[in-house]
Amino acid sequence: MARHLITSAIPYINGIKHLGNLVGSQLPADLYARYLRARGHEVMFICATDEHGTPAELAAAKAGKPVAEYCAEMHEVQAELARGFRLSFDHFGRSSSPRNHALTQYFAQTLGEQGLIAEVAESQVFSIDDNRFLPDRYIEGTCPNCGYERARGDQCENCTKQLDPTDLVNPRSAISGSTRLEVRETKHLYLRQRSLKGEISAWIDSKTDWPVLTTSIARKWLNDGDGLQDRGITRDLQWGVPAQFEGAPWSGMEGKVFYVWFDAPIEYIGATAEWADATGQDDAAWQRWWRTDKGADDVTYTEFMGKDNVPFHTLSFPATIIGANRAGGAQWKLVDYIKSFNYLNYDGGQFSTSQGRGVFMDQALSILPADYWRWWLLSHAPEGADSEFTWENFQTSVNKDLADVLGNFVSRITKFCRGKFGETVPEGGTYGAQELALIEAVGAGLASYQASMDAMMVRRAAQDLRALWVLGNEYLQSAAPWTVFKTDPAQAAAQTRLSLNLVRLYAVLSEPFIPDAAAAMLEGMQTTNRDWPGESVAEALAALPAGHAFTTPEVLFRKIADEEREDWQKRFSGIRS
Ligand SMILES: [Zn+2]
Asked: pTM of whole model > 0.90?
């Protein structure tokens, strides 16, 4: 079996993520990880919190907490929500970990020794009262173009004009409001991406199987305007990975840290090392996933992310890896496939973390179990284009797909069996034409489902799975064992036996989408047999033999009533307090 490394874009630390964030990376990555594990592959599924940078510092200050304490608490909040949504990470790490500090400095040093890091003198706005340099977006003032009074130093929100902080009229610090600002000289490290452009370009060109959404974004950044630019990798901040360290091939970088875009993707590696530490293993255990000189050459590495993260993952992080590999020592794994997503919109507008608009992960779990959300989000994933969450659509999807199709099938057949044969798989009878046709149709549906999952076509996989559930319902409807029972109990027993086996098979196939319901179905069938069907579907549909005891499961999915939907619609229409 193959080895698969899967990473989800790492969520930023300053707050709880909304459902749009979830469906753009973590959730589809989890779907794929669960599927590959079910198929018997060896999987390493990694995510983490992205903890460095100015927004974390500011959020901590707002919460009145030291930034390290704030990040530790918010990490635990996000980890708990990930567990709530059943995200099956092998490790959920922290970009502030000692492992990531060491790896980030290692990569910076190696790149520096290859001549791929430049020291650049810059003028930057310094706030005397805040005693710090201010990033562009933390300077506010009046827009010289439209007169809007709260324009940011990088862009005017009102007229969208791109700005430099020095363009602003009456500039002030967005942190303190202080106007005692001055321009000071400072020095920063730049990753010389331009000198790696040829290699990155050739590498992108070799990825003929990547989605156009991914490669078109990469090519735009490579070629548009002046093309790929060198990029600053340091910031004047306290909270982060120190840019001056023992062995660094530069000096004078005290008081600076690496810019969050540089250290965050390195945390994919860092978190895998954290996993080895947490499970009491040595370095070889994580290096065999990441270093092609240490056994990772047979690993297939897939990244999941929203489209806004594509430039970093197609250009900047690969520049780090390609540049470091030039040193000839450790050889690091480049990504094999990038699965990127468009945006999920919310009820006629956008989800917004800053404005608190939409449904957030904690709110979602407070009103309904994870499976309901997982099913809707994955079956409506913004793959080909942006998609939209509406409460009506959510209600319809849950009630029809989950309750009326899958839930109804499980409930109907188990209750029928209990009533006529008791809670054991009945014996007797043989399969007729209808049963054989069903087995064949399930085989064909399964092949389609697997093809969609292998290709990471999330929406199509959901449709395929739903079609498999529909087959069971249609079969029950037309075979009607409750009618057959009156004249031919043995035939009804055979039909029931097949249907109960279908419950087990549905549990196994549905587990990547709705893991809790799948577990409840297996528990009801009193089996731990989670084997994915092999060549013979007929064999898989004979896993529960006659005489096998089961318990009739509780209602798998409850329906969403109109009043509830209206209530939620109202409750989540405004801005989160
Ligand atoms: Zn303006």
From this structure: yes
